[in-house]
Amino acid sequence: MTDNSNIKADFWEAAWTNNRTGWDLGGPTPALLSLLRSHQSDLFPSQQEAFTVLIPGVGRGYDVVAFAAKPGVKAIGWISAKPLGVTEAKKELARANLSTDRAEVILADFFEYTSAPFNVVFDHTFLCAIHPSLRKQWGAKMAELTKKDGYLICYMFPLREPDENGPPYALSIELYLELLGESFERVLQRDLEVSELPTSGMDRDKLGKQMISLWKRR
């Protein structure tokens, strides 16, 4: 089993309990919605009828709802925090009237989680939430869970000089290349547009730069 002290499950459960949910954007990630529009034919080619998507560290599940709105998509959100996080995410899926054949949220140890690989995986600040000692395992697990020729979307935050603070822990473009370069080809990396910057939750600008990237599984 992975050392849960390094995932800080109790930390995240306490955050849910005490409503310290500064990561909560109040809706789907704006930069993700832009990417789904601009790269829909790559992510979900019309000649294919069914797709699976995984969102680790899914928060309240807004992005699960966004993916599940796409035709033929089954979206799964994963949470390592204890049951309260799952309960909150399931409430969001219920509000969207999504059945379990379209969307679900599971509680599991991410690094022990086994599944057939997914067409698309979306990491929205999950990497920055785990202890730096788990980063190589994160890269290996992303490769394991992404189908060949499938895609990994990374919301890259916080990009800043290394320090001991966290979570969220400091990340860098070079770190992503180190962790993903062997198994993935980077096909897109860009700054967020002004319209894509979060307007609720924590003040992310104080913590580091935000970018979004798209990686194709080799």
Report on the architecture of this protein.
- The structure is a single chain.
- The protein is an alpha/beta fold.
- The chain has a single domain (5-18, 33-38, 48-217), classed as Rossmann fold, CATH 3.40.50.
- The chain has eight helices and seven strands.
- It has a seven-stranded mixed beta sheet, with helices on both faces.
- β1, α5 and β2 form a beta-alpha-beta unit.
- The longest helix has 13 residues, at 83-95.
- It is globular and about 45 Å long.
Would you summarize the structure shown here?
The protein is of the alpha/beta class.
Summarize this structure as a short list of keywords or feature phrases:
S-adenosyl-L-methionine; disordered N terminus; S-adenosylmethionine-dependent methyltransferase activity; 7-stranded mixed beta sheet; TPMT; Rossmann fold; 8 helices; about 220 residues; alpha/beta
Set out the fold topology:
Layout (H helix, E strand, L loop, with lengths): L3 H4 L1 H9 L12 H9 L1 H4 L7 E6 L5 H7 L4 E7 L3 H13 L7 E5 L10 E7 L10 H11 E14 L13 H8 L3 E8 L17 E9 L1
Parallel strand pairs: 1-2, 1-4, 2-3, 4-5
Antiparallel strand pairs: 5-7, 6-7
